[in-house]
Amino acid sequence: MQYDVVSLTKALVEIPSVTRDSNVPIAEFLQALLSEAGWTIERTSYVDPNGETKVNLVAKLGEGPGGLAFCSHNDTVPGQEQDWPAFTPDIRDGVLYGRGSCDMKGPLAATIIACLSIDPATLRKPLYLVLTADEEIGLIGAKKLAKASEMLNRDRPEFGVIAEPTELIPVYSHKGYAMVSATATGRAAHVAMGTGESALFKVVPFLNDLVALDKELKTNPDYQDDIYTPTHHTINFVVDTGQAATNVTAPFATVTIGIRPMRSANSQDVYQRIIDLAQSYDLDVESDYLEPLFSPLDCELVQACERLTGKTPETVSYGTDGSYLGACIDQLVILGPGNIGVAHTVGEHIAVDALHAAVALYKSMIVELC
Predict the structure, then answer these.
(1) Do 303 and 281 have their domain in common?
(2) CB within 8 Å of 234: residues ≥ 6 apart
(3) Which residue among 25, 32, 105, 144 sits deepest, i.e. has the most Cβ atoms within 10 Å of its Cβ?
(4) Are residues 249 and 309 in the same domain?
C-alpha cells in the first residue's frame, strides 16, 4: 500500500502500542514498510521488567558516515479507551484525532513520508530513521539503543531531529532529568501495641529539608538558568510505603525525587546536595543523572532550522530521547508538528495541515543537509 502522511498516521494510530505492552506489532509494521522501500534495517530488542519484548529500529538509506537522522518513539501513554475511541482515528474539520496522533505517530509519519519521497541517487550523505520504544516511561528504549546500535555508533550521524511536537518551532535545548531514591526501614507492628517503628517518621526530617531546598532553588540566582521556563530547578517527590494501613507502622518508606537539571545553574550541585541530605539521615540511596540536551545556537543544524522555518529557536522544560541519542548523534534539535499541550489527553489530535507542513519542512532539511 502506498501511504501519504495522513493515511500513514491513521495506520499507526490503529496499532495500539501502549508502553505497558510489547511494541513488536508496530515495530514490525514499520520494519516491513522501510525494508520494502530499500532501507537497511538494524533491529535490536530487549525484555522490559514486565516480561514484554520491546524493539528498537534504526533504518539507513545511503552509505558512509555522517548524515541526518529523524528520531521518533512509537510507544504511547494508555489510550483511556473507556472515554473515547482512542485507536480508531477520526478526521473532523481538518483535524486528526486518536491516541498518539500528536505524540508522536503523526510526527513519525511525517518523517517517514519525507524520507520516502527522496530519490536515493540525490543523497550526498546518508539518511536515518531512528525508532525507539519505551520513551514514555523514562526513555528506556533510547538508553538501550545508544549502547546497542552498531550502526549509529559506527557511522555517527552528524545531525539529528527529534520529531516531538513543537508546532514546528526549532528547540535547541531541553532540561535533563535526575532521580534520587531514598529508603528508610522500620518495623511493622500494630500501632496499639507501641512496639513498631515507623519508617515514615524517619523520612519526615528529610522531606522538610527538601521543602526548604525547593524554596531556595526558586529564589537563589546561583541555581537558575534564564534560557528555560521556568528558570529554576523543579523538584517533585512521591512517597511509597507499600500502602501501609493507618493502624500499622510502615515497615519501609521510599522517597523518590525527580529533578530537572539545566545546562548551567549548578545542577550537579543540587543533585549532590539531595544525595548528601538523604545520606545524612542514614537513608539508603539510589540515583541517576541525565544531562540536558543542548545544541549551540550557532551550530549548523540550529542555524539551518531557523532559516528553513523562519522561527527563532526556543527551549522547553520537558525531556526527549535526545538526552540519550546525543551520545551517538553530534547535533540535535527537537522539531515536530503538533502541540504538546494536547498530548496524553482524551481527544489528542493534530491538524492535517500541520502534518503536510512537517513533510515539506523535513524534505527541505534533507535537501540542504544530505
Answers:
(1) no
(2) 259, 260, 317
(3) 105
(4) no
